[in-house]
Amino acid sequence: YGGAVIVSLVDGDAVHEVGVTAMLSEDEDQAAALHGVTRCRLLDLVSGATPLVRAERYPDSAVGDRRADALGRLLLARYTRLCRNLALPISVPRPTDGLSAITWRIVGELGLSPDQQQGFLNVADPLTRGRLLLVTLRELQRRESFLRPWGHLRGGAEWN
């Protein structure tokens, strides 16, 4: 459908009900890349030679209060600090883009496992998702500060 695909995590024989509509493209290495556009809920599998699913949009809950703005600024500040400490490139949206965009971008950039990303995807409320992400960032900052004295041993390798 114009380069858009429905992507969902498979866990054993089960497929997670919440997935994403993603655009299929090529990255700089000429490999296939998926860029998530919107969340969707899988309704059923349409049998046939090509596996197709019926899905509906599963939008985030609307959030527009000061708590969401404050949480978005806090998430951006913590994520930016973590990226600076780890010498990682920082590519996060502006605070004016809204809490939902901020949480999705950070979850995508953190390098979490697919299971962890699916856990965030299942949370429909951006405020709750932002709070869970804040806990995750605190844990990553705690690990980074613990490992900092041994950073010179890293030698360019990824952090465990």
Low-confidence stretches: none
What kind of assembly state do the chains in view correspond to?
A: single chain
N-to-C order of helices and strands = EEEEEEHHHH
Query: How many separate helices?
Result: 4
- Euclidean distance between termini CA atoms: 39 Å
The major sheet is characterized as: 4 strands, antiparallel
Mean pLDDT over the residues: 79
Radius of gyration: 18 Å
Strand arrangement within the widest β-sheet reads 1-4-5-6
Number of strands: 6
- Class by alpha and beta content: alpha+beta
| Amount of helix | 25-40%
Q: Judging from the principal axes of the Cα atoms, what is the shape?
A: globular
Proportion of beta-strand residues = 15-25%
SSE topology sketch:
Elements: E1 4-7, E2 10-11, E3 14-15, E4 18-26, E5 32-46, E6 52-57, H1 66-86, H2 99-109, H3 114-121, H4 126-147
Antiparallel strand pairs: 1-4, 2-3, 4-5, 5-6
